């Protein structure tokens, strides 16, 4: 097995957004978007990041790229602490870290041509003159499977899949090391999703890219990821190799998410037990004490609302934050009642 090198790492990272109120506009609370996250992205891998809407995936991705400030903790890029770097100190690093969005043109002027869109990062970092940039953009379009002859077209002239290819061309223009793909295929039809995922995989091979691949759809993440991290209410609650995680999730939240994935075989699908989580996701303004999942967890016991479960390596390379992660399989409350009720002397 080849040695693992960490490209970027979050160490105890928090991102809390202040809530201002009252006459003086003082801080009256905070949205706990990301809480005490420890996560390393390895060079050359695809790390999937999944979780329900509002679980903090985008905020964590943005915090890693220093697009949003962390309120606590450290971020290290290639072993170097970048947490307290100023924007001007971070600027050269921007070339190494790029983001792909669900809607790559949502934030761009629709009157910009493909050339203007893709060459903007080249221009920002003074890469070549206009003629050289045209050649580079044409080459980038070819690399992402678009016709270089369409360099002067506008976004509305392309299909959704083609627009995402333009977004990818822009993201790789500076030859970054890390790409954070945030719901990059979520808005596309399934067949187009597969094409874009294939493109991302090919580019990873060709340019040695590292991906943080954010999505709420577990099936999409499985296809592309080497490892997968699961977020719930600002916390990374489980992390493992993709096959290991999908084969045997240890955290009850992951087990619930997995039980909702439809199986291709209709007989297995009918027999499958689906875990329905009770209640809504609590507010990130006032998250539950101790284990954040205890208000909805089908395995919860008194300790869960009193003691925060450590994010521990339960099996080699398989981390989970749960006091009862070792209780095997998808276990219903009645199945784990007996050992809980037995007093230590009765065993
Ligand atoms: N700039 C901000 N100011 C205040 N609260 C924010 C800000 N950005 C995000 N939040 C809040 O932080 C929490 C996490 O949001 P985030 O967008 O990171 O979640 P997500 O997992 O990416 O969700 P989705 O799947 O819907 O994209 C949410 O409660 C959100 O409302
Ligand atoms: S620590 Fe308790 S509440 Fe939290 S996930 Fe594990 S069993 Fe559920
Ligand atoms: Mg998001």
Explain the layout of strands and helices.
Blueprint (H helix, E strand, L loop, with lengths): L5 E16 L4 E17 L3 E5 L6 H8 L7 E6 L2 E2 L5 H4 L6 E4 L13 H11 L5 H14 L16 H13 L5 E5 L7 H18 L2 E5 L3 H7 L2 E6 L2 E7 H6 L4 H8 L6 H6 L40 E4 L2 E3 L16 H5 L6
Parallel strand pairs: 3-8, 3-9, 6-7, 7-8
Antiparallel strand pairs: 1-2, 1-4, 4-5, 9-10, 10-12, 11-12
Helix pairs in contact: 3-4, 3-5, 4-5, 5-6
Magnesium ion (MG) binds next to helix 1.
Give a description of the structure.
By secondary structure, the chain is α/β, with parallel strands linked by helices. The chain has one domain (6-20, 27-96, 176-337): Rossmann fold, CATH 3.40.50.300. Helices cover 29% and strands 23% of the residues. It contains eleven helices and twelve strands. The chain has helices spanning 57-64, 87-90, 114-124, 130-143, 160-172, 190-207, 218-224, 242-247, 252-259, 266-271, 337-341, and strands at 6-21, 26-42, 46-50, 72-77, 80-81, 97-100, 178-182, 210-214, 227-232, 235-241, 312-315, 318-320. The strands form two sheets. An eight-stranded mixed beta sheet has the order 6-7-8-3-9-10-12-11, sandwiched between helices. It has a four-stranded antiparallel beta sheet with strand order 2-1-4-5. A hairpin with a 2-residue loop joins strand 9 (227-232) and strand 10 (235-241). Helix 3 crosses helix 4 (130-143), helix 3 (114-124) packs parallel to helix 5 and helix 5 (160-172) packs parallel to helix 6. The two termini are 42 Å apart. The model is unreliable at 330-347 (pLDDT under 50). Iron/sulfur cluster is lined by residues 251-252, 291, 293-294, 297, 299-300, 304, 309, 322-324.
């Amino acid at each position: 097995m080849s040695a693992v090198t960490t490209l970027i790492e979050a160490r105890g990272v928090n991102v809390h957004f202040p809530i201002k109120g009252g006459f003086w506009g003082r801080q009256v609370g905070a949205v706990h978007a990301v809480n005490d996250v420890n996560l390393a992205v390895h060079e050359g891998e695809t790390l999937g990041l999944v979780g329900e809407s509002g679980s903090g995936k985008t905020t964590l991705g943005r915090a890693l790229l220093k697009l949003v400030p962390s309120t606590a903790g450290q971020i290290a890029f290639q072993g170097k602490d970048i947490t307290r770097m100023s924007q001007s100190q971070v600027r050269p690093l921007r070339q190494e870290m790029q983001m792909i969005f669900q809607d790559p043109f949502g934030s761009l002027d629709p009157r910009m041509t493909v050339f203007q869109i893709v060459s903007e990062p080249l221009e920002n970092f003074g890469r070549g003159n206009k003629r050289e940039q045209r050649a580079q953009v044409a080459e980038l379009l070819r690399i992402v499977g678009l016709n270089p002859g369409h360099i002067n077209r506008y976004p509305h002239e392309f299909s959704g899949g083609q627009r995402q290819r333009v977004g990818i061309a822009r993201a790789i223009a500076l030859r970054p090391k890390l790409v954070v793909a945030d719901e990059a295929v979520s808005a596309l039809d399934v067949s187009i999703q597969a094409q874009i995922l294939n493109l991302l995989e090919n580019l990873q091979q060709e340019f040695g890219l590292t991906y943080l691949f954010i999505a709420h759809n577990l099936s999409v993440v499985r296809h592309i990821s080497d490892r997968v991290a699961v977020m719930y209410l600002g916390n990374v609650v489980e992390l493992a190799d993709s096959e290991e995680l999908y084969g045997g999730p240890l955290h009850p939240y992951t087990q619930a998410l997995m039980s909702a994935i439809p199986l291709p075989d209709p007989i297995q699908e009918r027999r499958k037990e689906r875990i329905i989580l009770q209640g809504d996701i609590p507010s990130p303004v006032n998250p539950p004490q101790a284990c954040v999942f205890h208000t909805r967890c089908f395995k919860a016991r008194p300790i869960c609302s009193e003691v925060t479960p450590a994010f521990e390596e339960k099996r080699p390379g398989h981390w989970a934050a749960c006091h009862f992660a070792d209780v095997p399989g998808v276990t219903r409350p009645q199945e784990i009642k007996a050992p809980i009720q037995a007093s230590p002397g009765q065993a």
